[in-house]
Amino acid sequence: MNTDNSDLMYRLLVQSVVDYAIYTLTLEGIVSNWNPGAQRAKGYVAAEIVGQHYSRFYRDQDIAAGVPARNLEIAARTGRFEDTGWRVRKDGSAFWAHVVIDAIRGEDGVLIGFAKITRDITERHQQQLKLIEAKELAETYSQQMASLSGFLDSVIANIPAGVLAQDRASGAILLANQQAQRLFGGPQGEMTGRTPRDSLSPEVADYLERQMAAAPRAGALDDAVLVQTQVGPRSLRSRTVLGKQQDGSSDYVLTITEDVTDELAAYAQIHHMAQHDGLTNLPNRHHFNARLEGAIEDAARCGEPGMGAAILCIDLDNFKNINDAFGHGFGDKILLMLANRLRKCLREQDTLARLGGDEFAVVLPRVSRVEEAQQAAQRLIDAVAPAFSIDGHSFAVGISVGIALSSQDAAGAEQLLQFGDMALYEAKRNGRHRHELFRPELEAAARVRRQIEIDLRRALHRGELYMAYQPIVEQRRQRISGYEALIRWRHPDKGLISPLDFIPVAEETGLIHEIGARALNLACQEAAGWSGDETVAVNLSPLQFKSTNLVDTVALALADSGLAPQRLELEITESVMLDSSDANVRTLRALKALGVRIALDDFGTGYSSLSYLRSFPFDKIKIDKSFVQEMDESREAVAIIRAITGLSGSLLIETTAEGVETEGQFRRLEQEGCTHFQGYLFGRPEAAEHRKRDLDGHPALQ
Which value, in Å, is the radius of gyration of the alpha carbons in the chain? Predict the structure, then answer.
């Protein structure tokens, strides 16, 4: 039976158990899951009790005495608490329960919660009380013993545990109740008076003989043993008791046997759930860390030079877009298919784990060469490359992989995982759908990024970010028609920090949404105070554009500042149109409905498509500065500029040439039909109060 089938059987088994209340508790005693047996025993459905403290199952006087907390403390300290006592159902009725609380610890030994199994043994308790009462009556009123024997026989016959009495000298079976007959396999008439070896299967006979041999340690509870019984393989736990016949004749041995198969299956399932991911059934982060530590220790013990453990940190490319566009149901299906593809590429001794979300990782034990880890990473990348087909949709996600080796990079599991993450970041930074090996310089770069993130969060609260405005010149009227608002950061210690250094960090950490909203509000507020009617252009990052609140954010910025909508120009890049174009076009139309202008920035740099211009009426196309700078040396650059201006003129769309630095560039672009210009020739980005306000006497316009 493979691991997947075994895990599935455990999961189905624990859900099908109705005689035991099986559930788990957090460290604080909060119920975190609930099986059908718990609902049957206590009356609560999962929705009513999950998230509640388990003390509600105790009587008021027990709660006041601190019993629930004391029981958890015993379980945490000793590993297990076991007791019987009164518990309370939802309807207020009390029942006598057998309770076991086991401490659940991760592979690292850290306590992570408790497993609790409760069984309603009210009937058994009552029967035991009746047995005690019957014994007392028998001792007190010996004359009534004969009339009580039938009652005692009935009680013994119906005890849920198997009860088997054997003569200690001969081993002959003196008594076997119904449960013993069900487990051990034979009608009472065939068992009584005969030895287990003569009347039962060899497996059962061996088991009972071992219990007889243990009789001198009377009352000891035997460990659970798997026995092939008449009803199949069952886990049995027995207790033996020595006794004397009523007439004083030879000793007898009483074996009381419980079938704990369901109980052990529940424990095993709870343990499995604590170590595995609920969606993919792969090892989770706790289990993964333990496997990684074991692989590092194993490599160190083997003593071979250069031997170590390798870690592959894996992240899906473009997965968030699928979740946003199609919902998490589709995303979960892709994760399941992905896990299956990855697993098929690995060796039996390798460990594939899901660390959370779309993050996966692999432990490769006993790796002696870097090339082994690189080849494994490439196999994973190649396996994921083919599109996933789900419900008629085709999805291409791809993965990026970061590689780190314990023999070269780090000795500890935690540090090795950090190095793998750094290499993963480098793979994503270098274009995704690739693998990168950890290098020491990546650690220094990660520290720099982390410090930038810390400083950037502080800068948002301290108001260190401000807007600089670069003029946009309208050729026809030879005037400054507007400004592009560019975010700037003046660090109190480091001075000006380039946007190229902090914008990628902002996008990686999610700060781009807060920074983008701050830039939009600042630009609108400052532009509203200008005396003229100049426009202000604000860039929207691709991540910011995907925000469901973008339209509301823009509307609020206009309302708060009082800026006329037609004076605000929002610039988006072509990469926005590349992904989920239908949804993005709807967002653009909602923005357009506010009255703002929309510009397509960096046109022609990699993803250009005429379908963009057909699907949405852009107000302006901005020609990327790379074409402007190559005009004098590249005929291709001139041809592209000419094509863009010709197309824009036909569609009545304005064009702005970026990066104009020389008068020669300006004259050439003017000849090609550009309508607007932006660059150092006309002015550098400056704070609002220092921005250039007019072009009077500018030599390029004479």
Answer: 38
Contact 227, 236 (CB under 8 A): yes
Task: Show contacts of 512-515: CB within 8 Å, 24+ apart.
Answer: 512/541, 512/543, 512/544, 513/543, 513/544, 513/547, 514/460, 515/456, 515/460, 515/465, 515/487
**Lowest model confidence (mean pLDDT) among 168-172, 307-311, 653-657:** 168-172
Are 673 and 646 a contacting pair, CB within 8 Å?
yes
Pairing of strands 308-316, 399-405: antiparallel
What is the pLDDT confidence band of residue 1, given thresholds at 50, 70 and 90?
very low
Show Cβ contacts of residue 106 under 8 Å, excluding neighbours closer than 6 positions: 112, 274, 275, 286, 287, 290
Q: Is 702 helix (H, G, I), strand (E, B) or coil?
A: coil
Question: Which residues does residue 165 pair with via DSSP β-bridges, in sequence order?
Answer: 175, 254
Distance CA 113, CA 60 (A): 25
Torsional sign, CA 287, 426, 397, 578: positive
Tens digit of each residue's pLDDT (9 = 90 or more) over 107-129: 788 899 998 988 888 887 887 77
Instruction: Tell the burial category of 578 from Cβ atoms under 10 Å away from its Cβ (0-12, 13-18, 19+).
Output: middle
Mind spelling out the 3-state secondary structure of 279-343? CCCCECHHHHHHHHHHHHHHHHHHCCCCCEEEEEEEEECCHHHHHHHHCHHHHHHHHHHHHHHHH
Q: How many residues does the chain have?
A: 702
Quote the tokens at residue 480.
């400054």
pLDDT exceeds 80 at position 554: yes
Q: How far apart are CA 656 and CA 253, in angstroms?
A: 99
**10 pLDDT more than 50:** no
Residue 450's pLDDT band, with cuts at 50, 70 and 90, is: confident
* Rounded Cα distance, 281 and 3, in Å: 10
What is the rounded distance in angstroms from the CA atom of residue 644 to the CA atom of residue 622? 9
pLDDT of 238-257, one tens digit each?
Answer: 888 777 766 666 688 888 88
Average pLDDT, the chain: 83
Look-up of token digits 């250069």: 306
Q: What is the DSSP string of 496-517?
A: EE-HHHHHHHHHHHTTHHHHHH
Instruction: Name the pLDDT band for 560 (thresholds 50, 70, 90).
Output: very high
Cβ neighbours of 148 (radius 10 Å) = 15
pLDDT band at 482 (very low <50, low <70, confident <90, very high): very high
Give the helix/strand (H/E) hosting 140. helix 122-140
Q: How many CB atoms sit inside 10 A of residue 123's CB?
A: 13
- Rounded to an integer, the average pLDDT of 389-393 is 78
- Tokens representing residue 265 in the block: 């299956």
The contacts of residue 123 (CB under 8 Å, 6+ apart) are: 160
Could you give the angle at the alpha carbon of 610 between the alpha carbons of 608 and 616, nearest 5°? 105
